[in-house]
Write a structure and sequence with these properties.
Layout lengths: L2 H10 L4 E3 L12 E9 L2 E3 L2 E4 L2 E9 L4 H13 L5 E7 L4 E9 L1
Parallel strand pairs: 1-2
Antiparallel strand pairs: 2-5, 3-4, 5-7, 6-7
């Protein structure tokens, strides 16, 4: 999946989004998404990157738990044939839930 395809997929989720973070003072009201590629998982052969894969993090930030919103996001991921892992944390200092989806694209 190309970076353009990832941006298109994230756009299908219908929420404001940014790569890595929003600029200082530009964060929208929750819910919103942030996505980033924290590392690559390339397969090497003969000293070159034979097959390139990126680890993709998709972070959903909400001020309340929303199973409906998570299901909507998961439907988009599944429609694109993406297998994902999911975790959740409450960020006390921000008073936000972060639901993290981790996948390879």
């Amino acid at each position: 999946m190309t970076q353009e395809q990832v941006v298109g997929m994230v756009g299908e989720m219908g929420l404001p989004f940014a790569y890595d973070h929003f600029a200082e003072g530009q964060s929208p009201e929750p819910p919103f998404l942030v996505f980033l590629y924290p590392e690559s998982r390339n397969f090497a052969a003969d000293g070159i990157a034979y097959y390139k894969k990126w680890k993709l993090h998709l972070e959903l930030y909400t001020d309340y738990k929303s199973v409906e919103l998570e299901e909507r996001m998961e439907t988009v991921l599944e429609r694109h044939g993406i297998f994902y892992g999911k975790s959740e944390v409450w960020i006390e200092s921000e008073r936000l839930y972060e639901v993290l989806y981790e996948m390879e694209v």
